[in-house]
Amino acid sequence: MTEQTRTVQITFDCADPAALAAFWATTLGYRLQDPPGGFESWEQALDAMGVPPERRNDASAVVDLAGTGPRLFFQRVPEGKQVKNRVHLDVRAAPGLSGDARMAALEAEAERLVSHGATRLQRHEPAPPLGAGHLVMADPEGNEFCLD
Question: In this predicted structure, what is the pLDDT of residue 121?
Answer without folding.
Answer: 97
